[in-house]
Amino acid sequence: MDISGKRLVVRADLNVPMAAGRVTDATRITRFANGMKVLLAKGAALVVLSHFGRPKGGFDAAFSLRHLRDDLSRALGCPVAFAKLDGALDAARGLAPGQVLLVENIRFEAGEEENDPALAARLALLGDIYVNDAFSCAHRAHASTEAIARLMPAAAGPLMMEELSALDAALEAPKSPSVAIVGGAKVSSKIAVLKNLVAKVDHVIVGGGMANTFLFADGAPMGKSLHEADQVATVAEIRALAKQHGCIIHIPQDAVVAQTFAAHAPNAVIPANACPEDAMILDAGPAAIESFRAVLSGARTILWNGPLGAFELAPFDRATVALAQAAADLTRARLCTSVAGGGDTVAALNAAGVTDQFTYVSTAGGAFLEWLEGRTLPGIAALMRADHAA
Question: Which of 28, 122, 190, 200 is catalytic?
Fold first, then answer.
């Protein structure tokens, strides 16, 4: 699209962590701004929409985007005007090329989460072209992500395209051998993810509490370990689907157990099928780590969602850190493409110090999971409709 002299209504995700009125991690703001600088340099003006937190109906000063204005201005390298939605139309019409307007928290508007067409129509008046640059919000059919895209020329923004390209390379057209690492607490929360992945990748490494449920399905005693006894049939179904598609599922053959869920708790390495009654499995053991490393060693695509143990408690972070470093080494050597996402996953990679060494790390939570499940995200579907209409 020719954007010179045009006002772009840009949906961003500026939902960043704050403490005492100050931004504590500006990663999302910086990544957003880097893409927007290019559009500003091409002569566009920006009207930025975003949510922030979960306000409970109407204005709440604690969730005002005004708190983020200075950080956004610094990241963009230019002044940022600010307006509540009621005054945004006049402010937007007054923008010159290269100027930026930040509109107050869109979730202060009652119709946002209801995907209200009337609110979307108000937002569409703010500019000439709609740009969705918030993949992390694309799984929500809200007025600022879905309904507005029906009302004006619409396109994906730079961050959105970066995310979609990375995910497409990892899931839709992965180079083989492809390995998915799936961890976290519960099989039940990732049934759709596992079913989709075993049909698309060559290997799935299962870790964390999820692995315990696979072990339990094989008859292993769990002691006090987190597991889901009611998901045995689901495990069987996932394994059958994997066999049908030629995907190999890997679970730990040994484990690290402790009697208390605490950092530096006395622990021991045991066979994964021999957990004592008074203990709990908190991490994969050294033999499992080496086995998983061997699976990764030949991988050309690595897709990661979820830690392999209680990574927030040392020393039960060893499996997660070891595999994160192995994936980072392969990526640095340009032997594979590595894509990771999900809140716990990002935290685990940060703890391992390798986040910037992966090919792509998604900050999206729910949207990343729904993409892994193979769902069509409403925000993406709306852009595709707009593209076809054009």
Answer: 28
Residue 351, pLDDT above cutoff 90: no
Where exactly are the structural domains of the chain?
7-156+378-389, 164-358
Q: Is 334 helix (H, G, I), strand (E, B) or coil?
A: coil
- Which residue in the list 98, 298, 343, 365 is annotated as catalytic? 343
pLDDT at 340 over 80: yes
Model confidence at 152, pLDDT cuts 50, 70, 90, reads very high
> How confident is the prediction for the chain on average, in pLDDT?
94
CATH number of 164-358: 3.40.50.1260
Cβ–Cβ under 8 Å, residues 202 and 177: yes
Residue 366 catalytic?
yes
Per-residue confidence band for 147, with pLDDT thresholds at 50, 70 and 90: very high
CB contact at 8 A, 342 and 167: no
For domain 7-156+378-389, the CATH superfamily is: Phosphoglycerate kinase, N-terminal domain (3.40.50.1260)
pTM: 0.86
Q: Which of 53, 298, 366, 374 is catalytic?
A: 366
Distance of CA 216 to the CA centre of its chain: 29
Same fold across 7-156+378-389 and 164-358: yes
* C-alpha–C-alpha distance, residues 137 and 367, integer Å: 7
User: How would you class 41 by CB atoms within 10 Å of its CB: exposed for 0-12, middle for 13-18, buried for 19 or more?
Assistant: exposed
**Exposure of 39 in the CB half-sphere (CA atoms within 13 A):** 30
Q: What is the pLDDT of residues 318-329, one digit of tens each?
A: 999 999 999 999
Work out the pLDDT band at 20, boundaries 50, 70, 90.
confident
Q: 380: how many CB neighbours lie within 10 A of its CB?
A: 22
Helix, strand, coil percent content, the chain, rounded in steps of 5: 45, 20, 40
Neighbours of 356 (CB within 10 A): 9
Residue 343: active-site member: yes
Tell whether omega for the bond before 276 is within 30 degrees of 0, i.e. cis.
no
Tell me which of 6, 37, 186, 385 is the catalytic residue: 186
